[in-house]
Known about the structure:
Layout: H1 2-8, E1 13-14, E2 20-24, E3 30-34, E4 51-56, H2 61-74, E5 78-86, E6 89-95, E7 101-107
Parallel strand pairs: 4-7
Antiparallel strand pairs: 1-2, 2-3, 5-6, 6-7
Amino acid sequence: AAFYGALLHQPPVAGQGPSHWLVGLPAGGRLEIYAPARSRPRPRQEGRLALALQRPAGPDGGTTLQSWIAEAETAGARLLEGPRQEPFGWEAWLGDPEGNRLLLLVAA
């Protein structure tokens, strides 16, 4: 929760239990982060889905993305695939501190 709070510039707030956190989204709504109950089986496998966070492009989308990657690494992320420009903007894949895949996208 602290990692995602840092990336979204919002403080995490305790949710409904010790492993449930809420992080406000700048445009409204919230990101809910929780650990599933230990009584549920959770096989370790790479999933087909990942969280994506998007920011609007400033004058230079590549520089905006580089800055955001640096923030994420300072908060504990690991760069998996470096920045690249796509038709829809600049993107980079990271692993969050728990190993979940995360796409940072600076829209064109």
